[in-house]
Design a protein that fits this description.
The complex is a heterodimer. By secondary structure, chain A is α+β, with helices and mostly antiparallel strands. Chain A is built from 20 helices and eleven strands. In chain A, a hairpin with a 6-residue loop joins β9 and β10. The two termini of chain A are 25 Å apart. Chain B is an alpha/beta fold.
Chain lengths: 508, 286
C-alpha cells in the first residue's frame, strides 16, 4: 500500500507563514510515496538527446546556466524558501551571492561539478534580456555571515546576482498563498525528447507562453517538479520522463497552456498557436496539459483504484500467486515449448501430463465448490473424496470449465465414471447431477481429456509455482503401478503428506 | 529467435523504434476500415514493442490480438507496453458489466481520436489515456485483474484479449495459429522477411498468411520499396546479397493473387518523412 497524504491534510500541519521544510523550494505538500523525497535536490541534469543513459554530464549547455539561475531566483523560489527570502530582504540591494545560490538552490545544486562563478557571470552578462543583474562581490570580513561554514575558507571574490525587479517581486510574493500557486500550476506530458531537462523545460514553456515578438523580460516558468520514480531513493535526482508539474507566473498563462494543449483530442496542427520550432515539436510529440487540480484528483483516483485491484487479486479465486507479482508472471512470454514427455509425469515434467479435463455444459450459475463435489463423485476412497480434483478452473457465467486432476489415474477414473453415467447439472447447486431426460433442455456434461498443444497452452498460462505444485502432486499421488518410470525420492512420499500441504482458497 | 544481444537489427528489430514515432494512434491503423478489427482475431507480424498491437486490442473491438516478433527483448517490452496502456486506461472499462452498475453515474466516454483530432462518436468506448503517465512512474503500474473480476474487462477485451509471442513466425507456428485469424497485419516487415529468407522465405510467409486466414479474412500489407533494400543490406552486412532475390515488391500483388487473395485495396501512402508507404488490403478468396 502506498501511503499518500491528501493535500488538505498535509497543509493542515504546516504553517503558512514560513515553509515547513528547512530549505528546499520543492513543493512540500505534494504527496509522494516518501516525504523525504520532497527534499531531494532537483538538478538540471541534461540528457543526451538520443536518450542513452549517460554518466553525470560535466558540461551542460551554457544557456542552461541562465535558465537555472532564473529558476533559482523565480518568484516561486523566493516564496518557497524562507532563507533565500530573508537574505533578499535583509541584504544589499537585492543581491545574493552566486556562491550561495550554487550551493543551496535546489535547481543548481544538482549540477556536478558546480560551474565556476566566472562562467555563470559571463553567461548572465551575455543575455540581452535584462532580467538579472550581476556584479562582482566586494568581499569583506563582515560578509562572512553570508557564506556559512562550508565556504568559510574562501570569502574573497566571486559574484552576486539579483532580480532586477526584486522589490516588485517581493511585494507580489507577499500576497501569494499555496492555493495561488496551485492555481498557477499545470501538469504537462509528452515533453519533446530534446527538452527533457529542467533548464530546457523552462525554455520550452517560455516559448509556448510568451509571444515571440515580445521583448520584455519575463519569466513564465516559476517552478518545475519532476515526479520521482517509485524506486528512487531519497536524495536521488528524478529523471525527466516527459512529464512534469510546472508552476507559471500568472493564472492566464496556466489557463492558456491548458487551453492550447488540451488533454483530450490531442492537437495535430498549429491552429491558434504561435508557429515556433518548439510548438511544432510539441505537436509532433503530442504535448498536452491538464490543470494541477485535475491531476490531483486523478492521483487520488489512481491510488484508490490501485488498491481496489490489489484487494481483488488478493482475494481472487484466480491462481495468480502473490497479488503484486501477478502480472509479471502473466506477462512473461513463455519461452521455448518443450516437448512433453509421453504419459508419465515426473519432477522434470513442465506440467502434469494427462491431468487436465475440459468440461462442457455445466450450469452457468454454478460455482467451484459445487463443481468440485459433482466431479469428485468417482473418487470414493475414504478420506480422499476431494483429493482427486486438484482445482476447478471455472469462471462465473460460463458453461464450461477445466478440471485439474491430482493424477492421470484420477483423470481416467473421472472420465470413465461420466462415460458410464451420463449426467446433466440441474441448477447451480446440483452436486450430483441428473440423468438428462429427452424432454428437457438440460444437456449432459461432456468431459474431454485435454492433450497435446492445448494441454501445453493451458498449463503455460498457470503460474510456475502452481504448476510446479501440480507436477509434484501428480508425481506423488499416482501409484507406482501406474507410473513405473517415476524418478526422484519425492515420488515415494506418502500421500498424507501431500494432503497436509496448504490449500488454496476456495471461497466463492 | 533473435538474440537480444545482436547490435544490428538484422530482422528490422529496431530497438527504440517508437522514440521517434511517439504516437499512440498509428496513422496506418487509422486508415483501415473498422470492420477489419471488430470482433476479429488479429495477428500482427513483426509487432516490435506492440504499440500497434495494443492499440488494436484496446480500441478496435478485436476479440483476440496476437503480436509476434522474432526478437524476444522486444516482446518483453511489448508485454510492458500492454501493462502501460492498461495503466493509463479509464477504470470504467467493461461495457458488459454496466448493467450491474446502473445506479452509479455512467462515466462519459469518448474514443480517443484516431484520425485528425476529432473524437469519434461511434460506440461508447473507454478512454485510453485517462490517467497521466506520471502515476505509473510514481506508484508503479496498475495490476491487471483476473478475467472473472466483476468490474473488469472480460476475456475478449483489453488487456485479456492480447498476447505476445517471441517467434520466427515465417518458419515456426505459434499456438494461436491453430484457431486461425480474421486479419493478419504485416506492417513494414516484408523487406526483412525477404532479405533474411530470400524469395523462398517470402513465399513461405505469404502462403502461411493465406493458410491461417479464414475465407474472407484480410491481409494488410505495408511493403517497403525495393530501393530501401539496398540500404538495409549495406547496414547489415550479415544479410545475404540482393542478387539472389528475383522477386520485387511490385510482384507482390501478382503473387498474392496467385496464392488465393483477391485484388488489393490500395489505401494510399501514409506517414511523414521517410515512412511513406502504401497500405494494401487483400482479402482471402478461397
Amino acid at each position: 500500500m502506498f501511503p499518500f497524504i491528501p493535500r488538505k491534510v498535509a497543509q493542515a500541519g504546516k504553517s503558512t507563514a514560513a515553509t515547513a521544510s528547512s530549505s528546499q523550494s520543492r513543493r512540500n505538500t505534494l504527496p509522494t510515496t516518501s516525504t523525504t523525497r520532497d527534499s531531494a535536490a532537483e538538478g538540471g541534469q541534461p540528457v543526451d538527446v538520443k536518450g542513452k543513459r549517460k554518466a553525470v554530464d560535466t558540461d551542460p549547455a551554457v544557456e542552461d546556466y541562465y535558465s537555472l539561475l532564473c529558476l533559482a531566483l523565480s518568484d516561486h523560489a523566493i516564496w518557497a524558501d524562507s532563507h533565500l527570502r530573508s537574505r533578499l530582504i535583509n541584504g544589499s540591494d537585492g543581491y545574493i551571492p552566486l556562491r550561495y545560490l550554487l550551493s543551496h538552490s535546489p535547481v543548481l545544486t544538482g549540477l556536478d561539478p558546480s560551474p565556476s562563478e566566472t562562467v555563470v557571470a559571463k553567461v548572465v552578462r551575455a543575455q540581452e534580456c535584462a532580467f538579472l543583474d550581476i556584479r562582482v562581490l566586494v568581499s569583506a570580513p563582515s560578509r562572512a555571515a553570508w557564506y556559512g561554514k562550508d565556504s568559510a575558507e574562501d570569502v574573497l571574490g566571486g559574484y552576486e546576482v539579483r532580480r532586477r525587479d526584486w522589490p516588485e517581486a517581493l511585494r507580489r510574493i507577499h500576497q501569494l498563498t499555496e492555493d495561488d500557486w496551485a492555481a498557477r500550476s499545470v501538469y504537462v506530458e509528452n515533453i519533446p525528447f530534446q527538452y527533457r531537462t529542467t533548464a530546457a523545460i523552462a525554455r520550452f514553456i517560455h516559448s509556448l507562453t510568451v509571444s515571440p515578438s515580445s521583448s520584455e523580460p519575463s519569466m513564465p516558468t516559476q517552478h518545475i517538479w519532476l515526479p520521482p520514480h517509485v524506486q528512487d531513493k531519497p536524495g536521488d535526482q528524478p529523471k525527466c520522463k516527459g512529464f512534469a508539474l510546472i508552476s507559471v507566473s500568472t493564472l492566464a498563462q496556466a489557463e492558456n497552456l491548458a487551453h492550447d494543449w488540451p488533454w483530450d483530442v490531442r492537437r495535430t496542427d498549429l491552429y491558434n498557436v504561435a508557429d515556433t520550432a518548439e510548438a511544432q515539436e510539441a505537436v509532433k510529440f503530442g504535448f498536452r496539459v491538464m490543470p494541477r487540480a485535475r491531476w490531483d484528483a486523478l492521483r487520488e483516483e489512481y491510488l484508490a483504484y490501485r488498491q481496489t485491484l490489489l484487494d481483488a487479486l488478493a482475494y481472487s479465486e484466480h491462481e495468480t500467486g502473490e497479488a503484486q507479482e501477478t502480472n509479471t508472471v502473466e506477462e512473461h512470454a513463455p519461452s521455448h515449448a518443450t516437448a512433453p514427455s509421453l504419459l508419465t509425469t515426473d519432477l522434470s515434467s513442465p506440467y502434469p501430463q494427462g491431468c487436465l479435463v475440459f468440461v462442457r455444459n455445466v450450469h452457468p450459475e454454478t460455482n467451484k465448490t459445487t463443481l468440485r463435489a459433482l466431479f469428485s463423485q468417482p473418487f470414493t476412497e475414504s478420506g480422499a473424496a476431494d483429493a482427486g480434483v486438484d482445482y476447478v478452473d471455472f469462471s462465473k457465467g460460463m458453461d464450461t470449465c477445466y478440471l485439474r486432476l491430482a493424477s492421470a489415474r484420477h483423470t481416467q477414473l473421472l472420465t470413465a465414471f461420466f462415460a458410464a453415467n451420463s449426467k446433466a447439472q440441474n441448477g447451480g447447486l446440483d452436486t450430483t447431477g441428473v440423468a438428462p431426460s429427452p424432454g428437457t433442455t438440460l444437456k449432459a456434461v461432456t468431459l474431454e481429456v485435454v492433450e497435446g498443444i492445448r494441454e501445453e497452452l493451458y498449463w503455460n498460462k498457470v503460474p510456475e509455482k502452481v504448476r510446479r505444485q501440480a507436477v509434484e502432486k501428480a508425481t506423488a499421488t499416482s501409484t507406482a503401478s501406474d507410473q513405473p518410470e517415476n524418478v526422484g525420492e519425492e515420488a515415494f512420499e506418502p500421500a498424507e503428506k501431500k494432503r497436509k500441504r496448504k490449500r488454496r482458497k476456495r471461497d466463492e | 529467435m533473435a538474440s537480444s544481444s545482436s547490435s544490428t537489427p538484422i530482422h528490422g528489430n529496431y530497438h527504440g523504434y517508437y522514440i521517434k514515432r511517439p504516437f499512440a494512434n498509428d496513422p496506418r491503423v487509422a486508415v483501415l476500415p473498422a470492420s477489419i478489427f471488430e470482433g476479429a482475431r488479429v495477428l500482427d507480424v513483426g509487432c516490435n514493442e506492440g504499440w500497434v498491437t495494443c492499440e488494436i486490442a484496446q480500441s478496435k473491438g478485436a476479440k483476440k490480438v496476437v503480436g509476434v516478433d522474432i526478437d524476444d527483448k522486444l516482446v518483453r517490452l511489448a508485454w510492458k507496453r500492454r501493462r502501460h496502456v492498461w495503466t493509463l486506461q479509464d477504470p470504467f472499462t467493461s461495457g458488459k458489466h454496466q448493467e450491474e452498475h446502473e445506479t452509479q453515474p455512467v462515466r462519459k466516454r469518448r474514443k480517443v481520436d484516431g484520425d485528425n483530432g476529432e473524437a469519434e462518436a461511434s460506440k461508447p468506448s473507454l478512454q485510453a489515456d485517462y490517467f497521466p503517465a506520471s502515476f505509473e512512474h510514481m506508484f508503479s503500474p496498475l495490476p491487471i485483474p483476473p478475467v472473472d473480476y466483476p468490474d473488469g474487462p472480460g476475456r475478449t477485451e483489453f488487456p485479456h484479449n492480447l498476447t505476445f509471442r517471441a517467434a520466427d513466425w515465417v518458419n515456426n507456428e505459434i499456438l494461436e495459429d491453430k484457431e486461425g485469424y480474421d486479419a493478419v497485419l504485416a506492417f513494414s516487415i516484408s523487406k526483412w522477411i525477404h532479405l533474411n529468407g530470400e524469395d523462398e522465405g517470402l513465399m513461405r510467409f505469404f502462403r502461411r498468411v493465406h493458410s491461417v486466414l479464414r475465407v474472407g479474412g484480410t491481409f494488410v500489407l505495408e511493403p517497403q520499396e525495393w530501393e530501401s533494400y539496398h540500404k538495409a543490406r549495406r547496414m547489415n552486412p550479415k544479410l545475404k546479397s540482393l542478387e539472389h532475390l528475383k522477386l520485387r515488391p511490385d510482384d507482390f500483388e501478382r503473387i498474392l493473387r496467385d496464392i488465393g487473395f483477391g485484388p488489393p485495396e490500395h489505401l494510399g501512402k501514409i506517414g511523414e518523412g521517410g515512412f511513406k508507404r502504401p497500405i494494401d488490403v487483400y482479402t482471402k478468396l478461397n
